[in-house]
Design brief:
Structural class of chain A: alpha/beta
Helix content of chain A: 40-55%
Strand order of the largest sheet of chain A: 1-2-3-4-5-6-7-10
Shape of chain A: globular
CATH topology of chain A: TIM Barrel
Oligomer: homodimer
Number of helices of chain A: 11
Largest sheet of chain A: 8 strands, parallel, barrel
Radius of gyration of chain A: 17 Å
Number of strands of chain A: 10
Chain lengths: 288, 288
């Protein structure tokens, strides 16, 4: 068995059909030291029970996935989204507190796309900023960092109007770095000609709250949401990106989050085993 | 019948199953004033015959599609690609000379993705610059403008390592604007938070050699290459983009280039009719 890198964390999206208990078990059984759970499964198990399972596992908690989806115009839908994010903040604080030392209270935010029927991209982006401003006091009170995640531009209309790292950093700039940071995900950012400089800026501004690695390969799957691959199975050169994140001062866990039907169809233990192997080959050599 | 906007041009990719003669006929029959042809069909008809057809039509020639595909490392494949681009330059000059007054000798360049098995994105991008430097003297001698087209980042690995307008402008900066320019395509650039500023820069630097409009809609088609829609059928706000291109000084024809299986399956005359209508509603009101 390949010994997992000590900073590897399994994001539950990689083994999405698991319950919290199952996800924690296969992660621990593989010798991995950290996990990030998804809200759907946490709510299914219940927050208290999820926290109990995490606490009993000895795993670190790396991120909570995910908040966001707050690009709607003012009204009940927007209010409900913001309230739901407040719940997510509390979940994050609870689960991070239950994790082993080194856990991080980081809530990843996928901000959402254009509201149905809208073409006002600039307006949606402005409402992201407004939402962060509204949620920041709650995050601060809970000791949680909101991690703005720029998603690949192919998701700009339906999942995330936040498309680049500078965009995320510009929003974060108005807030304490302990409260609002960014998530760096290789799948979303690898194509950017200036990504290394942007990561450097994120480091100087103290904003890197999460680092996620997964690979890009074409042709994309018919459902482009499910087009992520084990590190090393695609075309991303993890060396420069990982060294840049390291040089930027990020020393936390590194998550692998693979939305991919074939991986979901595999037994979770096998998905974790292959994640450990891919990470070991493609990412670990570049970690300090 | 809707009267086509005088600056609309039909790119042959919208009616890809046509011969040159058919493409010219349906374009002219619809009352459209300009056309851009594709190399495959031009070579099938023969360059001299294609030029004769264009000359007889009274249509302006807007762009020739397409050169590029020169990211290979040095060797026979790269040499063949560069030689083929020299042929494309000659085709462009010949067809533009055959077109009505107002024709433009513009060769659109889709630069190509990563070579098979490569993860060296920076290297591939450097070879784009080298290829442009090699082809510029040929283009200048022929009176042709090479239009570097940044493609959507979802094509970075397999079709175009050129992903943003600044990247294209930085390459173009070393050359006479009459020889190396850029192509602005709404489908590829609409998501960019700074796209209006980038278009402004392109104008100041005299680089806008082509403006293409088509729409973005999700979910994308299973083959994401074929995901383009008639203007107005998606989420792109053509107002700010078109006004920025106008303000940047571009006064040439505006092409609609729709790679989409359903559009290809329609009779070409219907595709042109719907293009005229969509352009009239979504784009024309923003042209000076």
């Amino acid at each position: 068995m390949i010994v997992p890198h000590p900073r590897l964390s399994i994001n539950q999206a990689t083994i999405t059909r698991t319950t919290v208990a199952e996800a924690v078990r296969v992660t621990k059984d593989a010798g991995v030291g950290a996990i990030g759970l998804w809200r759907e499964q946490v709510q299914e198990a219940g927050l208290a029970e999820s926290a109990r399972i995490v606490a009993g596992s000895g795993l670190r908690y790396s991120t909570h996935c995910r908040g966001g989806w707050f690009t709607a115009e003012e009204g009940p839908v927007r209010r409900a989204a913001l309230d739901d994010n407040r719940v997510a903040i509390e979940e994050t604080a609870t689960l991070a507190a239950a994790g082993a030392p080194g856990s991080r209270a980081v809530l990843v935010l996928v901000v959402g796309g254009l509201p149905e029927g809208s073409r006002d991209l600039a307006g949606a982006r402005a409402r992201v900023r407004d939402a962060v401003a509204e949620l920041a006091p709650d995050a601060e009170a809970a000791g949680v960092t909101l991690a703005l995640e720029p998603l690949h531009p192919m998701y700009a209309s339906d999942r995330s109007v936040l498309s680049t790292l500078p965009q995320a950093l510009d929003i974060a700039a108005g807030f304490d770095p302990a409260v609002v940071g960014v998530a760096v995900d290789t799948f979303h950012l690898w194509w950017d000609p200036d990504v290394l400089a942007h990561i450097g800026r994120a480091g100087r501004e103290g904003r890197i709250a999460a680092y996620q690695v997964c690979d890009w390969r074409t042709p994309l799957e018919a459902d482009n949401l499910l087009s992520r691959h084990y590190p090393g199975d695609g075309v991303i050169d993890f060396g420069p990106l990982t060294r840049a994140v390291e040089a930027a001062g990020y020393d936390g866990d590194v998550e692998v989050e693979l939305l991919n039907q074939a991986i979901w169809d595999a037994p979770p233990a096998e998905a974790v085993r292959r994640t450990v192997a891919g990470f070991g080959r493609a990412v670990a050599p570049h970690l300090g």
